[in-house]
Amino acid sequence: MAKLTDKVAFITGAGAGIGRAAAELFASEGATVVIAEFNEANGRDTEKAIRAAGGKAHFIQTDVTSEESVKSAVAKAVQVAGRIDVLYNNAGGSTSVDGPVTTCPTDEFWRAIKVDLFGTWITCKYGIAEMIKTGGGTVVNSSSVFALVGTRNKDAYTPAKGAVAAITRSMAVEFAEHKIRVNAVAPAVTVTERVRGLMQSQPDVIRKTAERQMLGLVEPIDVARTALYLACDDSRTITGQVIAIDGGMSIN
Ligand SMILES: NC(=O)c1ccc[n+]([C@@H]2O[C@H](COP(=O)([O-])OP(=O)(O)OC[C@H]3O[C@@H](n4cnc5c(N)ncnc54)[C@H](O)[C@@H]3O)[C@@H](O)[C@H]2O)c1
């Protein structure tokens, strides 16, 4: 039996990387996937790939840094798919501009807060409100191993992901009575196109982090599979957890 039969999954940033892997996996498990993505070409490409594989998908152009855009995307998702059962707040990521607080541009701090933290917060605001109406659901947030262990050179991205871990716990407590579970994935270095770019522009930063991953680098599908577990009933008694997918980095 497929794990997300008849479920509607709203996935932000599903046009590339981990989000795309999750969109394809969730669709193959029976979900109707809403691709809430900023980049139209990538969003349409994910939609096309899912439909070509026999799955159900709707691309809705969304900018998670804009309240109006998120509000409208959630409303459109409910219009086209009927409800939201799974909300995967995946959009985000660090850049090569990040660094130690003493040298990192202040704008980079606000960029990370806006995309990773505000983007998650605002999508929960409208997405969870819909789940309450239909009697429950699951939320998967995207934190990072940087929220769990001390690392260097990411003093803009790390606080954003740390706060995502914190709101994962507080929202889990807040919404348990509505049968809504809230968990997060916390990947270490995961080989997406964006990270391949960072490997070239920040080879030392990525190498030093990756050296701590005893089981090697993570692939997007590894994160997608954990997100699927947290999204479906297999994890029905798990909430408020931040799950490291890190090749052992956080215990090393
Ligand atoms: N790749 C890693 O090593 C790694 C490690 C830890 C955590 N993460 C987290 O996993 C998530 C996915 O990372 P990834 O490496 O797959 O990223 P990615 O850059 O490959 O894909 C991110 C997607 O989000 C979209 N996006 C960006 N800004 C957006 C916005 N404002 N609104 C809507 N969509 C937007 C992009 O267009 C892109 O399609 C991020 O939250 C990231 O911080 C990644």
Give a nutshell description of this structure.
By secondary structure, the chain is α/β, with parallel strands linked by helices. Helix content is 47%, strand content 15%.
CATH architecture level-2 label: 3-Layer(aba) Sandwich
Question: Helix-strand pattern, N to C?
Answer: EHEHEHEHEHEHHHE
Mean pLDDT across all residues, rounded?
97
Give every kind of bound small molecule, once each. Answer: nicotinamide-adenine-dinucleotide
Q: From the alpha-carbon coordinates, what is the Rg to the nearest angstrom? A: 17 Å
| Helical fraction | 40-55%
Percentage beta strand: 15-25%
CATH superfamily: NAD(P)-binding Rossmann-like Domain
Poorly predicted segments? none
Question: What is the strand arrangement across the widest sheet?
Answer: 3-2-1-4-5-6-7
Total DSSP E strands: 7
Task: Give the tally of structural domains.
Answer: 1
Distance between the termini: 37 Å
Structural class: alpha/beta
Report the biggest beta sheet as strand number plus sense, adding barrel if it closes. 7 strands, parallel
Shape: globular
The CATH topology turns out to be: Rossmann fold
Total helices: the number is 8
CATH class: Alpha Beta
